[in-house]
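Work Package 4 report. The design task specified in the project plan requires that, given a folded chain encoded as structure tokens, an amino acid be chosen for each position. We show below one input record used in the internal validation round.
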């Protein structure tokens, strides 16, 4: 993981904090933490009479399947699932998984599909100004479950992993409370005056406004990270999810800038957003997945470097086409926008081919 990742830190030997924390997890009493989780469940079980015991923010992905498995099958809670669906065309796997998470575990789902007109306006604006095309959707993923928990009077709200703590970030604290999750950098505030225009009003942005701590305290919300109570492991989550019917993209789509088939499998165009880290920070999805697999002992560093060399820079062309079709960009318009975000400290552009290349890639060190 390069030091350009926002919020990443390393010790004096060059080991990143997420890897150091993974070692520290060997000393955590996970049985004791799971007992804490059971007590939390007992606290909220039946507090709304015959209504739901908790709310779980889900997408239909492998981690969502794992979360629902834990709370419905192991802890015998009655969860209400809440989800944000973007308007991109979905993969076959994504369509299946969203239905499967309800059918496999017998759970109700409340989901929101954003106003398509607004989504397109916001996506174009945040892509062109900030290189964050799915900020609107990502922001809703953080704000919408809180709004729904307040409206449904369900104080116990469950999220998966603490992203900052697991993978490196500014707010990397080992805590069960997800009350400050909005501050993790994934969907940080953009000033409203940067977004408003003749097509976008303050009313259009109402669900994107995060609930204040005062509002959450008044509603007695207790949002938690499951990763505090159970050791988080992508491969373990994936294995359990598959047992309950989760489908990956094997035999459907080999994404050019991914090295696996089970991260962010829902939609075709969404992964343009995750790839946009590459021009800005010099690494993308192949680096992210490689580092996670190294951290849990499923990949060697030498093999990871080769995978990153082969895949990280290759924006998947099917994904890019779907993205352009949705927003009405030509291929040239799209890459002209992308070119603006290449970090000149990290990249140089070949004057003959216009191709961007890392100045100091890890495989040359």
């Amino acid at each position: 993981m390069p030091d350009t990742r926002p919020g990443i830190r390393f010790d004096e030997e060059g080991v990143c904090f997420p890897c150091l924390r993974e070692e520290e997890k060997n000393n955590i009493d996970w049985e004791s933490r799971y007992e804490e989780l059971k007590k939390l469940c007992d606290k909220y079980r039946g507090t709304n009479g015959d209504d739901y015991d908790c709310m779980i923010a889900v997408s239909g992905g492998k981690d969502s399947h794992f979360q629902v498995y834990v709370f419905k099958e192991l802890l015998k809670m009655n969860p209400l699932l809440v989800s944000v669906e973007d308007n991109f065309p979905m993969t076959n796997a994504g369509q299946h998984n969203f239905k499967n998470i309800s059918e496999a575990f017998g759970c109700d789902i409340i989901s929101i599909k954003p106003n398509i007109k607004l989504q397109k306006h916001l996506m174009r604006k945040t892509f062109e100004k900030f290189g964050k095309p799915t900020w609107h959707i990502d922001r809703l993923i953080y704000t919408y479950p809180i709004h729904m928990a307040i409206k449904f009077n369900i104080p116990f709200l469950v999220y998966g992993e603490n992203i900052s703590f697991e993978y490196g970030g500014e707010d990397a604290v080992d805590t069960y409370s997800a009350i400050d999750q909005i501050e993790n950098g994934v969907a940080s505030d953009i000033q409203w005056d940067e977004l408003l225009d003749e097509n976008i009003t303050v009313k259009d942005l109402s669900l994107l406004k995060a609930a204040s701590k005062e509002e959450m305290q008044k509603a007695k919300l207790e949002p938690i990270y499951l990763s505090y109570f159970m050791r988080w492991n992508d491969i373990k989550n994936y294995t359990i999810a598959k047992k309950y019917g989760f489908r990956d993209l094997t035999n459907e789509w080999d994404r050019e800038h991914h090295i696996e088939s089970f991260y962010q499998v829902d939609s075709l165009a969404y992964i343009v957003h995750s790839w946009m880290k590459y021009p800005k920070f010099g690494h993308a999805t192949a680096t992210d997945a490689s580092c996670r697999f190294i951290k849990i002992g499923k990949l060697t560093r030498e093999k990871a470097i080769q995978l990153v060399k082969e895949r990280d820079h290759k924006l998947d062309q099917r994904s890019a086409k779907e993205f352009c079709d949705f927003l009405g960009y030509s291929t040239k318009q799209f890459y002209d926008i992308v070119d603006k975000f290449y970090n000149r400290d990290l990249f140089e552009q070949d004057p003959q081919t216009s191709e961007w290349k890392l100045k100091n890639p890890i495989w040359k060190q």
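Residues 139 and 146 are 12 Å apart (CA to CA). Validation will be extended to a larger panel in the next phase.
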